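Q: Two folds, back to back.
A: First:
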Amino acid sequence: MSCLCCSERLNDKQGCDKQNKANPMKPIKIHNQVLDESQSDFLILAGPTAVGKTDTVLTLASEHDIEVISGDSRQIYKHMNIGTATPEPEILDALPHHLFNELTPDIVWNAADFYHRARQIINEVLDRDKLPVVVGGAGMYLDALRFGLFEEQHKDPAVRQKYQDKVDAGEAEVLWSRLMDLDPEYARTFHFNNYKKLMRAFEIYESSGMIPSKAFSNSTDPFEKQGTLVVLDRDRKLLYERINQRVFMMLEDGLIEECQTLLEKGYQPDLYPMKTIGYKEVYAFLNHEIDEAEMIRSIQQNTRNFAKRQLTWFRNHLFDFWIDLGS
């Protein structure tokens, strides 16, 4: 988690340079890359977990008048700040943020919800003559924002129940392996225990005859505003070291206590948001299913695997800039 003197960095910028109102994207520099996208209305900062998105946002905020929109599938939830690497309160207070800490964990938030809310917020931020910056690593959410949704098509309750029964019977990993054979591009974007995505994938496949990645690519609702997608990356070894260190910092910051607090508030580990990496391993530890050392190793390994899947997703989808943040 970032620990920065953000207030000074953000408050140093008083007001916005209005000379480029009609073109808030020009010019912007990220690391060593100048973005000269004259037709763009908003910026998307994507990349794997722990790559350095928050630090990049703070640098942008010191030079441009921006508002941040979370493109993360978990930071929308209250009481889950540590495990989701939500920016610290002083950052949230010093810079306008949207789609952070808005819902309780018993409410489902999905790509369709994000698609509608994020587009609305982007238009509102543009009306304020500011630059919207969408930040996150949820590839499906970012694709929905830019290209539209396929989510409402090809729904079949009978097919969904068929695969619900298979998941309930403990066949999720077998189904995921089958999906890897059918559609490796899509299967690589999530773990087999993401039952919702897994069942939806087979529902789409059986109802439409199309593999999910093909079906989603047929979306016909592009956003009227043009975004520039920047994917941030680092040397793989360094990224993994940052992930490992972040896990230790999360535990020092109180991840276990955060999980206990969620239980005390009545939110059970079987809720979809709480099956997130970091939370599910802590709950296994609290239930005496694994010891502390195994908990730490599991969070680190699962997070590294997740980062790898994120990078695979972004490499296989359209992006405008791929920036190596270096060391």
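A: Second:
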Amino acid sequence: MVLAVDIGNTNIILGCFKKDKILFIERISTNRSATDLEYAATIRMALHIHGYESSMLEGAIISSVVPDITGVVKRAIEKYACVRVTVVSPGVKTGLSILVDNPAQLGTDLVVDAVAGINSYPVPLIIVDMGTATTVSVIDKHKNYIGGMIMTGVAVSSDALVRSTSQLPKIAFETPKKLIGKNTVDCMKNGIMYSSACAIDGIVERIEDEIGEKCTVVATGGMAELIIPLCKRDIIIDEELALKGLMIIYNKNS
């Protein structure tokens, strides 16, 4: 059994897999001030809830876009389970051909998603990852990563709107009942959520125009389940995408 950890700016996805089977996935908050012991305790609790113990682990793999805590989480796993930890970084085998200006600068979260994507879905492929930022990755018909874009995330947009105005309240996201809001909270919620959905629809259409082909579109990330159903485009939601990618990369390097 292998522990997989995907460290994002807001949340950390962790889970376990055995061979090609994902056993469980959990999300925890990214805490930049937590110690390795505190992360070790959280990891232990997550495994225990699902009926697993440290003695059952044979290895671990981490991808991270938060360098400050990558080492902390790595030490936490080593302290808890005493296993070898692979960190996704330049030099690690991924099987992904990256055709961008500086492949070493590509975020490991995008690499992990793309590795899972080319092994799970038809290409050409567009991957939308809706976390703190919303990222879009484009994989061509030859399974090359050819680029993408980074947009403001849904929650970041909401926070910026509240900070920059005097009377708008902080809101919770939930599926809008209809497009046109009748009060301030609904107007904010609908505006932020539907504008994000429309942006995704429009960007997918323009990417297809640019590459001249229809694409499979896959979405993942914490906000995907709320926003993607509002899109007009047919988009697959895959919350296991990051873990699938980590599983593939671990197996390539074991």
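Q: And?
A: The longest helix spans residues 184-211.
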